[in-house]
Write the structure tokens for this entry.
Amino acid sequence: MAQSDQVPVDHNFHAKSTAAEVLDGIDLTGKTAVVTGGYSGIGLETVRGLVNSGARVIVPVRSPEKAADALAEISGDVSTVPMDLADLGSIRDASASLNESLSSLDLLINNAGIMACPEARVGPGWESQFGICHMGHFALTNALMPLLTATPSSRVVSLSSTAHKMSGINWDDVNYDDQPYDKWQAYGQAKTANALFINALSRRMKGHGGHAFSVHPGGIFTPLQRHLSTEEMVMLGWLDEDGEPSELAKAGFKSPEQGASTTLWAATSTDLDGVAGVYCEDCNIAAPTDPESPTARYIGVEAHACDDDQAERLWELSEQWLANA
């Protein structure tokens, strides 16, 4: 999947379309979905949309008490399984439980993540943003492949970000072992990894009619910003000097429900039938970045995030790391 495969489709959805609008008329009765990070922010709205459309949804949770409080407001078939994306043992346990209890899995939505956090290590020493956003989901997805391949037309959706523009994969020092840690560069690398993972996964799902897509949900105020100070968000232009959403944020940011809409579109739209591994934004396939556009920093997908060779290189590296963990 090269940038040339990134061709938007013609429909009526747009950047501010809501989850309810995207799912209008879609019946997911009898479908089963797993949604990581499904008890806060856009993950919670993703779960709500799926359940309201009739799906059975299972949410892996790191904090059962917090999840119970958040999910109590959703009426429908939603349950949880303990899991921490930073803990490979818990991923193995959760996957084993799901493989044992389910006979099929229609949707796997890799929604959870961390952003611009202080330097930390997870697993056998992986940089935490790469380790949680990519390696944790890589381990989970691979462990659930028996269910996904047994389910006709299953889909995997992984949340990337426009932050992929900040960095490709730093192949010589992925874990910041030798270079100074940069929280935004590390986040950009992790979000590029999410897109490349989907690129490679889509080829592995093709044989059973499955699909895989990556998604940029848009700018949304959610707990994802918990590691950012008010001063930093003012500097970024997201907040004004009084700590309130800036005019830029008011115009460009989405509500959590609007932020879930591209995920839900990628998970359900027939516009994507037969389409392989593309990166999506604003309820559509993203176009390649136009370097001449004033929105080039925020809109479009970079070539390094949809490069087949880099995707396969990342898959091979991730398999090696997981086997040695």
Q: What stands out?
A: The first strand starts at residue 32 and ends at 35. The mean pLDDT is 92. The chain has two domains: 3-219+256-324, 223-253.
